[in-house]
Amino acid sequence: MKADFVDVSDTQKTLTVEIPSDLVDAEIERIAKGYARQARLPGFRPGKAPASVIKQRFREQIHHDVMHGLVMKRVVPLHRRFDSTKPGSSPCVLAVGAPVPAVAAPQ
């Protein structure tokens, strides 16, 4: 996993993290299995819907859960490694699946 820490100012830090796709895919599968156990979809017995249907039907929720889980598991510990201060707010995720373009910091 690749990580870059930039100290923008006393109050703003930027942590760029690249998470390997195999970790993301494994997390998607894990979350989708959890949804499959609980899902009640028309035409399928409870908990028996195919994974492809679950991933399609609950795509946004699965991606949200994956992002939240990976940020908490991977990014927060990296933040502690680079900077000993506590973050004043939750991490802001700018892009998923592609490198983050350079963005001007808000004033």
Which SSEs are present, and which pair or pack?
Elements lengths: L1 E6 L5 E6 L2 H18 L12 H7 L1 H24 L25
Antiparallel strand pairs: 1-2
Q: Would you write up a description of this structure?
A:
This protein has 107 residues and is mainly alpha-helical. It has a domain of 64 residues: Alpha-Beta Plaits (2-Layer Sandwich). It is built from three helices and two strands, in the order E-E-H-H-H. Strands 1-2 form a two-stranded antiparallel ribbon. It is elongated and about 55 Å long. The C terminus is likely disordered.
End-to-end distance? 30 Å
H/E order of the elements? EEHHH
Strand order, largest beta sheet: 1-2
Q: Could you tell me the radius of gyration in angstroms?
A: 17 Å
Mean pLDDT rating:
76
What is the approximate shape? Answer: elongated
CATH architecture of the domain at 19-82: 2-Layer Sandwich
CATH superfamily descriptor of the domain at 19-82: Trigger factor ribosome-binding domain
Tell how many strands the DSSP assignment holds.
2
The CATH topology of the domain at 19-82 comes to Alpha-Beta Plaits
Structural class: mainly alpha
Low-confidence stretches: 100-107
Key terms:
mainly alpha, two-stranded antiparallel ribbon, Alpha-Beta Plaits, 11% strand, 2 strands, 107 residues, disordered C terminus
Describe the structure concisely.
The chain is mainly alpha-helical and 107 residues long. The chain has 3 helices and 2 strands.
